[in-house]
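INPUT
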Amino acid sequence: MALKYSRQREAIKEFLMATKEHPTADTVYMTVRKEFPNISLGTVYRNLSLLADIGEITRLRLGDGTDHFDGCTAPHYHFICMNCGSVSDLETDSLDSINEIAGKKFDGLIDGHVTYFYGKCANCHKKS
Amino acid sequence: MALKYSRQREAIKEFLMATKEHPTADTVYMTVRKEFPNISLGTVYRNLSLLADIGEITRLRLGDGTDHFDGCTAPHYHFICMNCGSVSDLETDSLDSINEIAGKKFDGLIDGHVTYFYGKCANCHKKS
DNA sequence: AGCAATAACAGTAATCGTTACTGATTTTGA
DNA sequence: TCAAAATCAGTAACGATTACTGTTATTGCT
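OUTPUT
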C-alpha cells in the first residue's frame, strides 16, 4: 500500500513542524483550513494518525480527553499548566533511570515510561 | 448539598476496594449489576466521578481512551502490559525528585507529575 | 503525454466513552 | 411520619474519533 504524496498531509506536517504549540486535531483542522478551505476533518485525523504511526510526529495523550500532536519526535518531556491549559516542552536530563527504580520489585519487564509534569507555567506564575 | 448515603455508591466503592484490578467504568457497571440488576450506567459514572472528586478513589488516565479506577488512594505508580493490557501496581520508591530535575531549566512552577510504566507483565514475560 | 491502478480525498454517517436531563424513588433530619 | 432534597433509572445528547462511499489526485508504465 505504497504511501502516496498528498498536499493535505504535507500541509499538516509543515504546520506541526513550525509551531511550538501542541495542537489538537481540531486546531490543526482550523489552521490547515486556511490553505485548504474544504479539507475534511476526517482527512486531518487520518493523516495525524498516519504520521504518528510512521514516526514523523508524536501523539500526546495528556489525559485531558483530546489528543495533542507534536511535530518534534526527539524524546523530551512535557509540561501542562493547570491554570491556562497550555502545553510546553521541558528541557530535561533523561529520566530513564526511573525505569530501573520502578523495576526493582517487579517481576515483568519495563520497557519505558510516559511522564508529564503539571503546575503553573511561567506566564501564569508571574501573575500570582 | 449534603452527601446522602446510597447503596449503589457503596457497592461501587466496595468493589473497587476489594479488587486488585484497575477496572473501567464499564467493568464496574458489569460487576455491580450482579447485585443491582437495574443500576444505570449513568449512576456508575456519576458515582465514580463523585468518589474520585472527594478523594475516596483514584481516577487513572492511562491514555488508552478510557478511564480506569483504583480503590487505593495511597500514592503509587502503575504498570501497563503492552501485551495483554493489564494494569498493575508498582511498589516503588518515591520519584518526586524528578520534579526538581524537570524544573531546573523551567521558569514556571512544577507541582507534580503523572507517570506510568509500560512493558511486559510477569505473566506475558514468562511465555516468551 | 496518456492511461489504468489505487491511494487519498471530501462529505457524511456511525461509534464510543462520557455527561446531562427528567420524572420517579430513597434517604435524612425534624 | 413527613416533607425537602439527594439519588436514582432510563434515555437523550455530547464531543472526539473512526468508518464508509463515491469522487479526485498521484503514480508508474507505456
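end of record. Residues 1-6, 8-9, 38-43, 46-47, 65 of chain A lie near DNA strand C (CB under 10 Å from a C1').
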